[in-house]
Structures are given as C-alpha cells and as structure tokens.
C-alpha cells in the first residue's frame, strides 16, 4: 500500500486547515481511500474503480486521462491552488458525514472532477495518530531523500571541480598546441625554403653536368689523337732506323768476309798439305761474326776450294 499526506484549505472555509491522506495499491485508477481530519474530528471514505469509470464517462473523458487528472489533484506536491481546488460541505446527515469534492478551474470554467461522502470515524484520536505517523514517515523519507540529494550534490560539486580543473588543462593544452603549431609552421617554412634552394642548386648542377662531360670528352679525344700521332711518328722513325741498321750490318758483314778471308786460307793450305787430298770442312767457329740468324749471302763461302 502506498500513502500520500497533504495539507489543504477548502473553498468554503479557507481559514481552517485540513489534512488529507490518500491510500492506494498498485495504481490510483484501481480505486483509493481518503481520510480527512481537522485535528479534532476525522472522516473517511472510499472511491472504487467503478466510480472512477463512471466519473470519466460523465465527463466524456478517457479513463487514462481522468486518472492523470486525479493524480495531479490528489498526489502532486506542487501548489495547484489556481488550477485545482477542494471543497467541504458540512451538511451532515445525522451528524455523521460530510460532502467532499475536488474541482479543476480553467479560467472562466470550473468543473468537478469527483466527489464522495466521508463518514465520521468514532475513534478519531487513533486516526489522527495514524496521520501523525504517516507524516513522520514522510519526514523521515524526506530526510533520507535530502541526505541522498546532499551526497549527490557533493559528488556533483566534486565533479564540477574536476571539470573545472580539466577545463584549465584543456585550455593550457590548446594554448600549448597553438604555440607548437606556430613554431611548426615557422620550421616548416624554413624547411620548404631550404628544399627550394637545394632543388634550384640541384637543377643548376644537372645543367652543368652535360657541359662538363662534353668538355671532358673533347679533351680526351684531342689527347688520344695527339698520342696516336706521336705513336705513329715514333713507329715510323724506329722502322727507318731499323732498316738503316740492318743495311749497315749487312755491309759490315760483307766487308768482314773480304778482310778475314786471308788468314783462314793460309790455315787451310797448311791443313791440306798435311792431310793430303782431304777436303776441309768449314765451321761456324771459323767465322765468329756469323750467327744462325745471319743470312748466307754467298754459297761459295761454305764450300771453300783450297786449290783456287
């Protein structure tokens, strides 16, 4: 069971304060009990689900919408004095009951949401004690809710402090990023300038390389031509010198043969006289100036006749 206790002042007697307790189970649309007290006397009544349906039908309103209106007028803690009002009629029947009604006021129009007859309670002090107990429970619940809200508020304040510190860190980070970005832009511009300079220098070097290579090829070609001419000239001179030397050697060889022929002839005569008719043999030792590589110019030298 759920209970709700509230304070109200009826239209017919605004100087008197009443305490109204609403009790229901599960949902207000399934019915509820009302207990009303002025601190001295108490009245109680019950509204069934059928009566709720009948009231909704009389007002030509859907039951769900009607139940929402009941919650606003009976359960909400907000001050709806300008919108929802209560009234109590003390036209008692045998002094045992009163008429209790609740209305909704819309500018110039007022319509009744519901009404019922409340019966006087014989044991009023017990009912009042229950109302006080319910009030204390509500206070206790409100204290617990207040403590919870206080802790939640402290947590939120702590989070707020953390958020402020974080915000400061974010601002410092943004300032640092801005400063680093500016420095990075400066360094990047310097690098770009240096790269452009290097590219320009590289382009100039590439343009100079073909000219240098062409000049080097020209120098090498001219040098090779000169060396070739020098080589051919020296070869021709060496050939002429060799031819002249060979001719002179041959002339000297012929001259030597004529001069040295006297001595060997004497020896051959002596050698022939001693050995009779034996034909002498001529060897290369007798002509030291001859060699195997020297051509034989006169075949008569090799066959010497001593008789001649």
TrEMBL record:
Q: Where is the signal peptide?
A: none
Which residue range or ranges hold the XRCC4 C-terminal domain?
A: 227-286
What are the UniProt keywords, alphabetically? Chromosome, Coiled coil, Cytoplasm, DNA damage, DNA recombination, DNA repair, DNA-binding, Isopeptide bond, Nucleus, Phosphoprotein, Ubl conjugation
| XRCC4 N-terminal domain mapped to chain residues | 17-118
Q: Where is this region: Disordered?
A: 216-240
* Cellular component terms per the entry's GO annotation: chromosome; cytoplasm; DNA ligase IV complex; DNA-dependent protein kinase-DNA ligase 4 complex
GO molecular function ontology, one term from the record: DNA binding
UniProt cross-references to SUPFAM superfamilies, sorted A to Z: XRCC4, C-terminal oligomerization domain (SSF58022), XRCC4, N-terminal domain (SSF50809)
Protein name according to UniProt: DNA repair protein XRCC4
């Amino acid at each position: 069971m759920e209970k709700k206790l509230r304070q109200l002042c009826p239209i017919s007697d605004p100087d008197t304060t009443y305490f109204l307790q609403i009790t229901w189970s599960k949902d207000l649309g399934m019915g509820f009990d009302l207990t009303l007290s002025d601190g001295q006397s108490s009245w109680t009544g019950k509204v069934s689900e059928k009566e709720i349906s009948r009231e909704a039908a009389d007002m030509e309103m859907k039951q769900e919408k009607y139940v929402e209106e009941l919650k606003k007028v009976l359960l909400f803690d907000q001050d709806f004095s300008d919108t929802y009002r209560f009234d109590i009629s003390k036209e008692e029947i045998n002094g045992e009951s009163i008429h209790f009604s609740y209305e909704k006021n819309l500018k110039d129009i007022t319509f009744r949401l519901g009404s019922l007859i409340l019966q006087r309670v014989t044991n009023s002090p017990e009912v009042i004690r229950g109302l006080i107990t319910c009030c204390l429970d509500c206070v206790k619940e409100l204290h617990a809710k207040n403590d919870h809200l206080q802790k939640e508020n402290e947590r939120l304040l702590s989070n707020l402090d953390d958020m402020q510190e974080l915000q400061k860190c974010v601002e410092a980070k943004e300032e640092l990023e801005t400063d680093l970005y500016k420095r990075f832009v400066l360094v990047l511009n310097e690098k770009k300038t240096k790269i452009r300079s290097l590219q320009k220098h590289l382009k100039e070097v590439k343009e100079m390389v073909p000219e240098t290579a062409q000049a080097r090829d020209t120098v090498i070609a001219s040098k090779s031509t000169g060396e070739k001419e020098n080589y051919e000239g020296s070869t021709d001179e060496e050939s002429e010198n060799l031819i002249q030397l060979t001719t002179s050697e041959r002339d000297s060889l012929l001259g030597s043969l004529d001069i040295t022929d006297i001595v060997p002839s004497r020896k051959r005569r002596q050698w022939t006289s001693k050995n009779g008719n034996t034909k002498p043999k001529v060897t290369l030792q007798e002509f030291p100036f001859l060699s195997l590589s020297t051509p034989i110019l006169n075949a008569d030298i090799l066959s010497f006749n001593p008789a001649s």
